[in-house]
Amino acid sequence: MNNNKLIHESKIHGQDKFSFSIYHSLVPCCLTSFPLHWHDEIEITYMKKGCADFYICNQLYTAHEGDILISNTKYPHSMQQYKDESADYFSILINTKLLQQDMKSEVIHDELIDKIRRIEDASLIFPPFIKADSELAKSLCPFLDNIIEHRKECYSEYQLLVLGNILIVFNYLLKNTCSTDKNICEFRYDFSKIKPAVHAVHNQYEQKLLIQQVASMCNLSKSHFMKLFKNITGKGFNEFLIEHRLHMASLMLKNTDDKLIDVSVNCGFENQSYFTRCFTKHFKMTPSQFRRKNLNQH
User: Fold this and answer.
1) Mean of the pLDDT values across residues 150-157?
2) Cα separation of 39 and 30, whole Å?
3) CA distance 24 to 15
């Protein structure tokens, strides 16, 4: 089995010839957390207002206004609301193939090509956390602002402007690369052991998942699995599963008009009463209140 595909986010970000996308997130009105995942694209997170906790390869970063986070290619990462604080941030996903698109390889310096390839295989990485008051952040922010400002026209009249700004951002980042940290390498190795369990949560969350069952998927004993899963994700398996179910329920409440009982069943909860208790505890409002709030904001 190829474990590299197990929790790989398969969604295509952007268009094939312009592999770039931007997502706007508001905490807590749109979401309070985003589950652990990874993808081929490099993700640049730009905190516009407020603060939130981000985990990148199990390293915690509390980002404030103006801070920049980078999840390198294939790096597991997640987001969590910081205490009761609100946050407004943009996630910019860029595939490294965009750097060489429409360029003949012979016109790109060999050293640059080598750097890009090392970024792709994660042997070389961009700094995961860039503080707002750093010189690098001050250099990047004007171009990130420009990309965000024109994101709605990035496939039309402002495509060249957006592409130009992306290339400038990467130019700055490529001057600030570093080697992969030993602790991160160890984390990614340990994480690979629990990938089947995370895959099961992402793809079978509506089904009954027992710890012994997912431990067997990982070829681990129940006790070893529970300890390793908690060390890697920071949560017990059942807590991780419930949070993902709640995340999926929040998406259904925002994007469908399904009845609450159907949302509850489709997200793997035993009954609507238990679903409502869990949802209210997590989001600080009932499912009905959550739906009305997001409907009004939309």
Assistant:
1) 82
2) 22
3) 18
Phi, psi of 159 (to 5 degrees): -60, -45
pTM: 0.77
What tokens appear for 89 in the block? 């941030």
Provide the residue type at 97 as one letter. Answer: K
SS3 154: coil
Location of structure tokens 């205490």: 83
Chain segment 83-96, per-residue pLDDT in tens: 989 999 999 998 87
* DSSP letter for each residue of 38-78: B-SSEEEEEEEEEEEEEEETTEEEEEETT-EEEE-TT--EE
| Distance, CA of 82 to CA of 87 (rounded, Å) | 9
Q: Which amino acid is at 222?
A: K
The answer, yes or no, to whether residue 99 has pLDDT greater than 70, is no
Contact 225, 214 (CB under 8 A): yes
pLDDT at 133 over 70: yes
The whole-number average pLDDT for the span 207-225 is 95
Which tokens sit at 44? 């640049």
Alpha helix (H) residue ranges in the chain: 110-120, 135-149, 159-174, 182-204, 211-217, 222-233, 237-255, 260-266, 272-283, 287-297
Amino acid at 240: F
* Cβ atoms of 286 and 276 closer than 8 Å: yes
Burial class of residue 131 in the structure, from the number of CB atoms within 10 Å of its CB (0-12 exposed, 13-18 middle, 19+ buried): middle
